[in-house]
Known about the structure:
By secondary structure, the chain is α+β, with helices and mostly antiparallel strands. The protein has one domain (2-57). Helices cover 26% and strands 26% of the residues. The chain has helices spanning 22-27, 47-57; strands at 2-4, 11-16, 34-41. It has a 3-stranded mixed beta sheet with strand order 1-2-3, with no helix packed on it. The protein is elongated. The protein starts with a strand and ends in a 9-residue tail after the last helix.
Amino acid sequence: xxxxxxxxxxxxxxxxxxxxxxxxxxxxxxxxxxxxxxxxxxxxxxxxxxxxxxxxxxxxxxxxxx
Length: 66
């Protein structure tokens, strides 16, 4: 999950999906990221969030898979 650093407006990492490291995230980004003082694990999506992703955002499952 990303946020923005107020002063510079640069992207800042707030949390990382479980199983991934800071290096994984940085290696898959095309620019240097800022990091929050405390990085937490990203919470899994709630049932309603999954429904929105599956039915409204990507109903053909091109991005989120089947």
